[in-house]
Structure formats: C-alpha cells, structure tokens
Amino acid sequence: MKVRLMSCTIVPEQLYVERDADRQLKSIIDEMERPGYVLVSRQMGKTNLLIHAKDNYENDREVYVYVDFSTVDDLTERDFFRNVIDTAIETHYEIFKEANSIISSLRQDSTLSNQRQYTREIRILLRYVDKLVFIFDEIDALTKTNYSDKVFSQIRSDYFQRVNFRELRKLTYILSGVIEPKDIIKNPNISPFNIGQKIYLNDFDRREFDSFIYKSELLLSESVKDRLFYWTKGNPRMTWDICVLLQDMQNLDVVKLDEAIGRYYFESFDKVPIDTIREMVSKDKVLREALIQLYYGKIDALDDSLKQKLYLAGIVNYQDRNIVIKNPIVEKSLSLDWLMKLQNDDVDYLEKVYDSIYIRHDYLEAIRLLERMLSLNTASKDELNKICLYLGESYYRTVKFSKALFYLQKINSSEVTKEVIQGNLLEGYVYVNQDDTKNALNCFDRNIKIGKETGMSDAYIDESKLGKAEAMIESKDKTLLAEANSLLVSFIAQNDLGSINIPLLPKAHYLLARVKEEDKQINSALEELDAAIMMATEEEKPFLLYQKLLLLKKDEDRNNVAKRILLSLDKKTDVQILENFDYTLKLDVYTLCLILAELILHFKEFKEVIPQYLKLLNESKEAAYNTICKTLLISNEKNAEEFARLILKLSENDKWNFGTDHIFTAYMAVFQKTRKIEDAIAFYKFMKQVNFSRKNFPSVDARFLCEMLVNVVYYYVFTIHDYITGKGVVKLFNDNFGQDTDNVVRCMALKKDYASYAISVFTKKPYIAFDEGGRFLLKWETFLNRVRDLDNSLIDDLKSIVKFVQDHQRKIFRAHQIMFVHKYGRNDLVIIRYIDSSITLSKKYKDIEDDLELGKCKILNMMDRSRLKI
Predict the structure, then answer these.
(1) 314, 44 in Cβ contact below 8 A?
(2) InterPro entries recorded for this chain (predicted)?
(3) Neighbouring C-beta atoms of residue 322, cutoff 10 Å
C-alpha cells in the first residue's frame, strides 16, 4: 500500500529517519552516567526523537516514562513531584502495581519534604525494574513556576546520591526544551545544573533527506529533490510539510515547486515554523539586532550566547565561527526591510535595560543590550550617561569591578544630573568592595559637595553620607572612626529638622552601633541597635535583631532576642536574593543563613521549630543546611567550621539524606577554616570514597583543593613514609588538575611533583628517580619563564625545593656516573635529547654538562669528528 503523507504530530515509525541525535541519545541512556538534554528550536522533531527512543528501547525490565511539562504551571511543588511518580505508575501499572500500594500508604502519613518523598518513591519504583528512564519534555515551561530550582536540584541529587543508594544507578533522565537548564535556574548557587550532556538535534543532512524522500515513496526527479533541499536545507518540519503539498501535484518541476513554496510560506507568513520565528523576532530586539549584524556581515559582533539564542529560535545553524541563516525560507521570511521596520517601531531600549537590571536582575542580558547600543553609536549625550551608569551597575553586580569603574568614570559630569549622582555613589561602593578607602571617600564627598552647593535634597546624596561613614568604619582607622561617629550623629540629629530621608535612619543607627562596637562601647552599641529596630520596617528587623544577638552575653537576654527573631520570620513565605552590594538592612538569603546557623548551633531549645524556617531556603532540610554552609564558607563567617562539622556528624544519621556534594562542601569548609592535616586527610579519604572527579564538581575552587592535596601528599611521603598512599594522592591530583593552566595550581603541581620525585628516590632504581628529577627541573624552568603576578612567597618556597632537587640529582649522578656517561672531551660534539622532548640536538659536551648532571637531558651518541664540517 502506497504511503500517504499527512500533517501529524507523531511521525509514523515507517517514516522516521534517525539522525546523529538518535545515536547520541541511545549512548547516554546506555551509559546511565549523566542526564542528557535535547537542545533544539521548536518544530525540529524533538518530541518524535524522544518517543522513538521510548518505543524502540522499552521492555518489561527497562521502563521509559514520558512526562510533558507544558502544563506544570497549574501544579504546586508537591503535585509536580507526585505527578512524575504517578505518571510512571499509570503508564506501567502492571509493572508498578505493588509499588503503587506501598507509595499510596507512605504518602498518607509522610512528613518528609517533597524532594525527600520523591527520592523515597523513586527508590521503591526501582525495585521492580532494571532501568528507569524519565523523559521530561518542554522543560522551558518550568520558568513559570517558583520551584524550578528544586526540580533541577533533585535531578542532580539523584546522580550524586548513588554513593548512598546504589539502586539509583538504574535511574537516568532525558530533558528536552528550547532553553538550557542553566537559564531556567533562578539561583545557580543553590542549584547548579552542571552535569548534563547536550544533545543537538540538527537538520537532515543530504543522506538523511534522501532517506526520508525514499521512505515517503514520492517520485521526485533529481532536480526537484535538489531544489527542495536548497529551500529547506533539510529542516524536517518544512521538508515534511512541503512533501504533503507535492504528493498530489502533477508534472512537478522546479518552477512549480518554487511557486508552491512561495504561496505556502510567503503570502501570509502564517505557517509553522515561520509564524513562530517571526513572532519571536518581532518581540525580541536582541534577536533583531543580531540578525541585522548578520546581514551586514558583522559575525564577530555576535558572542556565543547570542549565536545560541539565534540557534534555539530556529533561525541559524552555527559551528565554531561559521554562522548561517538556516535556509532560504527562513531568510526570505526575515528580510532586512522587515527587520528595520520593526526596529523603527520598537519601544524604548533603555526601558528593557532597566527591567533587566532592577526587576529581573539579569545583568548579563543588560550588558549585552547596552554594549549593543554602544556599538550602534546612535546614543544621545543623555542616553550615553545612562548607558555608562547601567553598565557600571551591571558589571558591579557581576563582581567585575575594574569594568564597572571604567564605565562609571566615563559619565559626563559637566552638569549635575541624576546619573552623575548615582554614578558617584556606585563608584564609591565599588571602592569600598576593593578596600580602597581613599578613593571611596572621594566619590562620596563629591555627592556631599553637590548637596551643599546646590541645596539639592536627594536620597542618593543622603545615602552617600552613610556610604562615607561605612567606608570609614570598614577601614578600622581610629581617626576615621571618630569622624564617622560625628558624621552619623549629625545625620541622625537632622531627623528633628525633617531634612533627611527617613528610611535611611535605621541604617544610620546601625552604622553608629558598629562605631560604638569598634570602640568597645557595647552598651551604647546596643542602644543604637534598639533605636534602629524601633524605626525599622518588618523586612529590616531580622537583620538588626541578629546584630543585637551577637553583642549580647547573658543567656536570658540572648534567648529573648532569639525568640523575637523567630517571631519576625513567622510571616515570611519567601526571602529575597539580594546581592551583598545592595548595602541594605533587608532580610535576604545571606542574612537568613547567618541567623539560622547561629540558632541551630547555639540555641538547642529551638530544635523542633527550626525546620519550618529552613523551608525559606529549601524544602529539603539537607539542601537548606548546604546553602547555609556554603554561605558561611564564602563569607568567611566564624560559625563555618562548627556548622560544617555538624553536617558531617548528621550525615552519619539515617534520618538525614545529605548528597555527595553537600558532604563535599562540609569537608571543604572544615579544612579551609582549620588548615589542619587531620582535616585534610579526612577530606582526601572522602574524595577517594566517592571517586572524586572534577567534571562532577566544575565550580570547585581548584587552588584550594590543590593546596589541600599537596598537604596530604607531603604528610604521607615526608612524615609517615607511606609511599603507596602518597602515589594515590599524586594520581588523584594528576587526573583532575594536571592540565590546569592557573598559575597557583601549576605552582601546587610542582610541589606535588616534588613529592612524586621523593617517592621515586625512596622506592625506585636510581636511574628512574634521576629521570623524574630531570623532568621536574625542566617543568620548573618552563613555569618560571611563563609565570606572571604570583605571590613571591610561593616562588621562594619552590626555589628552596628546586635547590634540594638539584643537589640530590648531582649526588645520584656522581654515585652512578658510569650509568650516564662515557668519557667525553669537553669540546666533543654529542647528540642529545632533553627528556621532555622528542627533538635531538647536537651540542658540545661542555655546553650540556650541567644539564646532563641534573638529569635534564641524555646523550644518545657522540658524533664522528671526521664527518663534521668546520
């Protein structure tokens, strides 16, 4: 029976054409080591790819569960996780019939968090299968929920928890959407999704295109097939839709094909996927500007993220530096004339920037928009000041202080404008963050001077006075502290005159409390904090009460304030993620972590009520503890070690379910605070236990870990002479950090190589140790030639090591000289090779004698003098 093509959602199996993505998907599922995510624009066949895999690979022992996320915005967090489990059961009821009864019973009395309950239910399902593959389609719909981070955190955790629950090795995930998981995650510090493997679903190549035409049983001439491929470039949806049109056409030729495509796509532009692409471009000025740059051949102006955005919109294909519009149909639908008309009709560009910075906190997007505006060179003088201010703000909040200063200092200050005042304030805070008190004070003083000379009443000028006080307090300088005291007393006194910004008063009292604390006037500091608390908003009270708690000594007083803190948190349903740069008293994630750490560690009487406040950070108490630990570690808080040790202790309790990454963070926090060898060894043993791999911890501080590993290998080699364990430490270092180009890491690598050399000296034959010593000295020379901006103490430490190696190499050479050289005259020409190279050289013996003695090179043979041309 002849095949009949019809418009359909799911491609019939007999017409399905496999692509590289199918093979990559199968490989990921076979390996079961990490989640895959299919990254592709709409109407490219991703759902068919997923369903094809399910239909072809599923059996009674290997279960595939397809879940469509397009309606998740109607689900609560609890319903979402339950829906995933319920879908697995409902679609495979005969397999999971018994599991269903167990899960239904457990749900009735469960007090577990949603994520822990989900893990428990997954483990129950895994009892009945050899492989469970969840296929999550349309993951971009998670952007509409407030629990997207928890979904990705759970997926990530399911892989790391394999250390504790081996059955999770039978579970894997495949995700699919038109947006990367990292772009859905709202707080990557809490829920980094860095373990997935991308699957790119590309257009048909010519072989795949011909395979589809063959399967469709369409009788097309070679010229028509060539022309059809020219128009679609293998786009599956377009190829299918055009073939539906062609199957009933008589006497088809290239002219008729062109006419059919013109009528179908270009008369009203309402056919899939052109309608979707045009709608996206009409709403997104960044896409439009990128396309205009592409039309003008300015490919270098497009960064990788912008190329990715164009790709996911279904507009371009790109590889490395080559980027082209997908096909002539897309190109004609997005003509330059149409793009320019949209540009002229668009709303204010700077409004989008403002929204990106202050509403959505998407600073990278703001930077892209602003730098695009600068490249167009069309901004007016006033707009240029705003652009520089917004760029300064965006770079400041992405901790790129030098770039922030570059743009803030480009603001034209010939006239006093709002941008000038805001720029001075922001520049001052940049310098505060850099501990540059002198320049910070100059910036704040510029605004204070503007206020005096113009009589202007402006919140940013008032805030500059507090910024100045804060800079002086941070300096710890006694003279500046006294000046800060006078400034703050004067600022607060103006309240009676009604001439200052009232919302700033709590902060003024708080800063004055800090001055009093620095001066050891604790009672006065407490009085200022009480004044601040009395004037503060509900959002500010938790922070101020916490500051008071830290100053109190009596248990009764501390307990009373702790109760007030908990009361102030009772009405909270969520907490803002404010940057440290905001210099606000409002409760944010950072302050909440400090508060909860203090209460957990030092107020055991609140043990039963603390879990409800942990949910402000995460539904999972383990994830919440991890967030607290990371916050304490990053901010170098005094409670960091104690809290990390608490996590390590709790991880041994069956009632707690910490992930591998949680425990890793705790070990790291302990050693970072103590620098004790016993803590380094415990950390190393944990890394060995979980088969540490840097690819699973890509954001780890490599410098810190390498320092720790060097401490460990030195202990085993030089203190207890356990060379076998020492070799294991060296291998772990080499496997994970051996290719790192960071100068500090390379410095640590040389220290590690010294330990490796010592192992060879103590355990191997002299000539093997001699070779390793030579390689070490050559590495040192290379390092010294390339290193820049490294702490002199690190270099000096290495120099003493190098001196020891050189002395020992000479001892080996002299003790075993017959093994290395024959008798050569000083002017004899010899063929040599340095042991880190494959290149042979001819040198006079006297020129390489020292290198030979140090083991850096070897003599291959002496040259025949009679053959030399002199």
Answers:
(1) yes
(2) P-loop_NTPase, TPR-like_helical_dom_sf
(3) 8
Nearest in space to 688 (alpha carbons), one of 709, 711, 658: 709
> Reading across the β-sheet that carries 36-39, which strands appear in turn?
62-68, 131-137, 171-177, 36-39, 197-200
Is the CA virtual torsion 433, 436, 440, 441 positive or negative?
Answer: positive
Relative orientation angle of helices 418-433 and 459-475, to the nearest 10 degrees: 10
Dig out the tokens for 364 from the structure. Answer: 């990278």
Our CA dihedral for 392, 396, 398, 400, rounded to 10 degrees, sits at 90
Q: 């901790």: which residue's tokens? A: 399
Is this model's pTM higher than 0.70 or not?
no
Are 743 and 789 spatial neighbours (Cβ–Cβ below 8 Å)? yes
Tally Cβ neighbours within 10 Å of residue 748.
Answer: 25
Q: Is the pLDDT of residue 660 over 50?
A: yes
**Angle 54-60-66 from CA coordinates, rounded to 5°:** 30
The pLDDT score that the predictor gives to residue 785 is: 82
Cis peptide before 506 (omega within 30 of 0): no
Confidence of residue 67 (pLDDT cuts 50, 70, 90): very high
Q: Report pLDDT for 498.
A: 53
Token pair for 333: 């639908």
Q: Both tokens of residue 708? A: 């720790």
Biggest CA–CA distance in the chain, Å, is 104
Q: Greater confidence, 507 or 299?
A: 507
CA 371 to chain centre: 23
Q: What is the DSSP letter of 586?
A: S
Per-residue CA distances from 378 to 214, 373, 569 (Å): 53, 7, 49
Residue 147 has a pLDDT of 85
Amino acid at 298: K
Band (869; pLDDT cuts 50, 70, 90): very low
Among 375, 370, 343, 330, CA closest to 354 = 370
* Angle, CA 533 vertex, CA 529 and CA 539 arms, to 5°: 130
Question: How high is the pLDDT of residue 866?
Answer: 41
Q: Which fold has domain 20-200?
A: Rossmann fold (3.40.50)
3-state DSSP call for residue 67?
A: strand
In whole angstroms, give the CA distance from residue 737 to residue 745.
Answer: 8
Rg (CA), the chain: 33
Contacts of 813 by beta carbon, 8 Å cutoff, 6+ apart? 770, 820, 852, 853, 854, 855
Alpha carbons 225 and 209: distance in angstroms, whole number: 9
Q: Which two tokens stand for residue 730?
A: 């060296």
Distance, in Å, from the CA atom of 165 to the CA atom of 160, rounded to the nearest integer, reads 9
